[in-house]
């Protein structure tokens, strides 16, 4: 897939690499070297969370200076978040839960959305709105691989990105499941690596994540 593909889909976002990094940035100066470090390691779908005062400025910097990355916004909780993320250059959105309002806003903005679900009812609501590529959040806390196996029966047409408690020690177990396309996790961008400007470490973590086997 070309990264300038305007018709990006949620499935393409999930298929690009085994791991979508969940990124928390407090300093705009970190944004571009961090994004370049991930891309150098083979990870280009980047979820920058809307959790800090600097998040939108960080997203603008990445969108402007790292065209090889495909910038996404995480922690999108309402239509205003989705609009701000799109204006800052985000090309996909990830939410911790699902509301039809967020789904509609992302559709209107042309932003593929990976909405978070943790129950069968939430999956059904997302599916009613046409969404079948979903984030399972918080994955470990809400039932882990056992929950995904249970869902594979009634929700056999849904593909998941488990996120929350996923780490290098359990990622392969999630990725081996047929209804898991990729996982999400914050371990690729540790706060201390950002503070130290240790971009080589982030590239190495990305390289290891990009090499994880998928089922
Ligand atoms: C989050 O939203 O913070 C993600 O779920 C990341 O969780 P993790 O830190 O357990 O990877």
Write the layout of secondary structure elements.
Elements lengths: L9 H6 L3 E5 L4 H13 L4 E5 L5 H11 L4 E5 L4 H9 L4 E4 L4 H10 L3 E5 L2 H9 L4 E4 L7 H8 L7 E4 L8 H5 L7 E3 L5 H6 L2 H12 L5
Parallel strand pairs: 1-2, 1-8, 2-3, 3-4, 4-5, 5-6, 6-7
Helix pairs in contact: 2-3, 2-10, 4-5
Bound molecules: 3-phosphoglyceric acid.
3-phosphoglyceric acid binds next to loops.
Question: What is the name of the CATH class?
Answer: Alpha Beta
Classify the helix fraction into a percent range.
40-55%
* Low-pLDDT regions: none
Our count of helices gives 10
**What is the second-level CATH architecture?**
Alpha-Beta Barrel
Strand content: 15-25%
Strand arrangement within the widest β-sheet reads 7-6-5-4-3-2-1-8
Report mean pLDDT, rounded to a whole number.
96
**Which fold does the CATH topology refer to?**
TIM Barrel
- Cα gyration radius (Å): 16 Å
Strand runs, count: 8
- H/E element string? HEHEHEHEHEHEHEHEHH
Quote the distance from N terminus to C terminus.
21 Å
> What structural category arises from helix and sheet content?
alpha/beta
Bound molecules: 3-phosphoglyceric acid
CATH superfamily: Aldolase class I
Which of globular, elongated, flat, extended, rod-shaped describes the shape?
globular
Describe this structure in words.
The chain contains ten helices and eight strands. The chain is of the alpha/beta class. It has one domain: TIM Barrel (Alpha-Beta Barrel). Strand 2, helix 3 and strand 3 form a beta-alpha-beta unit. 3-phosphoglyceric acid (3PG) binds next to loops.
